[in-house]
């Protein structure tokens, strides 16, 4: 059995897959990778199913030892990784010899890096997913972020090493954006035309208190037409709520599943992975698009991800 030994966990390293969708009606948010496209690509590089569990590191990476060796790929943001004394390329598969150590430092680009290994991280499934839900302490490895001394099991492996790399064109297409595209929220008409113009024209900074539950934004306050109240209702991933005070919150992968604040907009599905790469103090803007445009953008993105030409062998 192959394992990973955690010498240093980093700031917040968790086991994540593509999440547990479909349980919102019973109050369970999906969790899963904050940047699911990076996880999907990393799994393809190491010949896994796209939904296999990997490690998500946030802002500051950890140190991992591979006693039996493995096939590994790093995707997402660049954390300046070193495999012993060699720097592996982000977006390329690497053969790890028995006993080698992978060290990751602070990010030099986005918020999150993904470590994928051939066979995936083997943990007990909860509601059909291996993803860690930090707030509830469920799923993943003991329902928590990794700690020094933890030992993770790697799933059974079958394929020999083959070097694979993501084509540069795909990396550019899926790179970080300072502008997030959004569709109108269900309560968009609760806001005046001047408030909507201000929301779309202004810039917002990601607040320090942001986490996997939601990103708190700092910038011009958004005001409602009146002082009306709404009945609590279900909320979707990427919904932008405007609570009392007018500072928007982007609901994210560990969101509450219901909410009583009006929603001015919703980040489109094709841009949700970019939300996962936003760091505190990053500046963003919002661009309105139609529902038809949002659907076309997602279809185009999925066609690219499904393309055989996406990975060089």
Please, could you describe this protein's structure?
This protein is an alpha+beta fold. It has 2 domains: 3-166, no CATH class; 179-308, Cyclophilin-like (Cyclophilin). It is 14% helix and 27% strand. The chain is built from 5 helices and 22 strands. The longest helix is centred in the C-terminal third of the chain and has 16 residues, at 291-306. The protein is globular, with a radius of gyration of 20 Å.
Q: Looking at the structure, what is the overall shape?
A: globular
Query: Which spans of ≥5 residues are poorly predicted at pLDDT below 50?
Result: none
Radius of gyration over alpha carbons?
A: 20 Å
Q: How many strands in all?
A: 22
Number of helices: 5
Count structural domains. Answer: 2
Strand residues, percent: 25-35%
User: The biggest beta sheet, please?
Assistant: 7 strands, mixed, barrel
């Amino acid at each position: 059995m192959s394992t990973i030994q955690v010498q240093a966990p980093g700031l917040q390293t968790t086991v994540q897959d593509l999440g547990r969708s479909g349980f919102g009606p019973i109050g369970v948010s999906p969790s899963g990778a904050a940047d699911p496209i990076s996880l999907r690509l990393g799994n393809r590089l190491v010949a896994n199913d796209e939904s296999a569990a990997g490690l998500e590191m946030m802002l500051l990476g950890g140190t991992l030892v591979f006693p039996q060796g493995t096939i590994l790929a790093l995707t997402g943001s660049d954390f300046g990784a070193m495999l012993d004394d060699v720097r592996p390329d982000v977006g390329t598969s690497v053969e790890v010899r028995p006993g080698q150590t992978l060290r990751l430092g602070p990010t030099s680009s986005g918020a999150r890096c993904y470590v994928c290994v051939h066979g995936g991280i083997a943990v007990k499934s909860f509601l059909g997913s291996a993803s860690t839900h930090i707030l509830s302490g469920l799923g993943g490895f003991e329902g928590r972020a990794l700690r020094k001394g933890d030992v993770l099991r790697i799933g059974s492996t079958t394929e020999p090493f083959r070097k694979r790399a993501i084509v540069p064109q795909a990396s550019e297409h899926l790179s970080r954006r300072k502008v997030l595209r959004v569709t109108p929220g269900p309560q968009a008409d609760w806001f005046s035309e001047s408030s909507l113009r201000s929301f779309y024209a202004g810039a917002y900074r990601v607040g320090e208190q942001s986490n996997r539950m939601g990103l708190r934004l700092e910038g011009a306050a958004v005001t409602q037409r009146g002082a009306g109240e709404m009945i609590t209702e279900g909320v979707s991933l990427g919904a932008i709520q405007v609570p009392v005070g007018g500072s928007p919150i982007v609901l994210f992968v560990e969101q509450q599943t219901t909410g009583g604040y009006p929603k001015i907009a919703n980040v489109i599905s094709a841009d949700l992975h970019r939300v996962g790469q936003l760091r505190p103090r990053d500046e963003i803007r919002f661009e309105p698009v139609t529902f038809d445009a949002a659907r076309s953008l997602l279809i185009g993105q999925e066609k690219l991800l499904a393309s055989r030409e996406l990975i060089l062998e």
